[in-house]
UniProtKB/TrEMBL annotation:
InterPro entries: Rpn/YhgA-like_nuclease (IPR051699), Transposase_31 (IPR006842). It comes from the Bacteria. This is Rpn family recombination-promoting nuclease/putative transposase. It comes from Arcicella aquatica. PANTHER family: INACTIVE RECOMBINATION-PROMOTING NUCLEASE-LIKE PROTEIN RPNE-RELATED, PTHR34611. Residues 6-204 form the Transposase (putative) YhgA-like domain. It holds the Pfam family Transposase_31.
């Protein structure tokens, strides 16, 4: 599968690929009649990618499998992220489901029931329709020829902040809160400062450095909030959290510089011009050029 370029998709995949976040999300949000039948102890993320070339631009490709209602036959839980309303979500989900079934067929496995789960955090209201509605008003005799299946829709905007704050798992709580407020302006986002300070310090105490890195990379690279704008948070978190945030900020700046220089080189800019434009030595530019050449080989 091609690399995800959308920062929201990337954050979603990095977080929901964590078993404990997926387990906690199911436990906190799924309808009771489904949640109670899912064996969370045997929940396992599949390593296979079920995304084809066309779907790779749309789907984050996260699938878990487990037992359901005590039966050996597996259910597959497809987690899909959306930051904007999708006009025909069933069509994308159906292609994904079909890829799951084709892979199971190749491995001579019993086909699994796929529970498609859409997690949405866009601004517009998601209008959920049945698949049959896509076809206008077909005659009743034609309904038998139209595939009909449902999906679980979780619009984060409809989940209250206090509910997210009270999620039992801090990783899930931070993930969903950040996604929900990812489009807030800086001043509004800072209303989350008490929540973030509390959760980041708790994650630090739990030695969740990797997740804290993922969080700050999303805040700075995906939500585009710099350290200066987040100063009310940094004055109240631990020194370790501060150090992680500064490291991520430096990495993002270096990546941005690297990509900008790459673009200028591709457009024929000279080493001297790049050196002057970025205020770095010619030797540093030459080092970047070497990295570019080695990464293309």
């Amino acid at each position: 599968m091609s690399q995800l370029n959308n920062p929201h998709d990337k954050f979603f995949k990095e977080t929901f690929s964590r078993l404990e976040i997926a387990q906690s999300f199911i436990e906190e949000t799924f309808p009771p009649e489904i949640r109670e039948r899912i064996n969370l102890f045997k929940l396992k993320k599949t390593n296979a990618s079920f995304t084809d070339a066309d779907l790779s631009e749309h789907l984050a490709d996260i699938v878990y499998q487990t037992e359901y209602a005590g039966q050996q036959a597996l259910v597959s839980l497809l987690f899909e992220h959306k930051s904007y309303p999708e006009k025909y979500p069933h069509l994308q989900l159906l292609r994904y489901m079909n890829n799951v079934w084709l892979e199971e067929q190749k491995q001579n496995k019993q086909l699994s029931v796929v529970i498609s789960t859409v997690i949405y955090h866009g601004e517009a209201v998601w209008k959920k329709l049945s698949m049959i509605a896509y076809f206008g008003n077909p005659h009743e005799s034609l309904h038998q020829f139209i595939p009909q299946f449902d999906y679980l829709l979780f619009s984060l905007n409809e989940i209250q902040d206090y509910q997210i704050e009270n999620f039992k798992n801090d990783l899930l709580s931070v993930t969903t809160m950040l996604m929900k407020h990812s489009r807030d302006k800086a001043n509004n986002f800072l209303n989350l400062a008490p929540f973030l300070v509390d959760k980041l310090n708790a994650l630090d105490a739990a030695h969740q450095d990797d997740f804290i890195k993922t969080t700050f990379r999303y805040i700075e690279g995906g939500i585009n909030l710099t350290q200066n704008k987040l100063s009310p948070i940094f004055t109240q978190v631990s020194q370790n959290v501060n150090n992680i945030a500064m490291t991520i900020a430096d990495e993002i700046r270096e990546e941005t510089t690297f990509n900008n220089i790459k673009s200028l080189l591709q457009n024929g800019a000279s080493i001297e011009l790049i050196s002057k434009s970025f205020g770095i030595s010619i030797q540093k530019v030459e080092e970047i050029i070497k990295k570019l050449k080695s990464s293309s080989n």
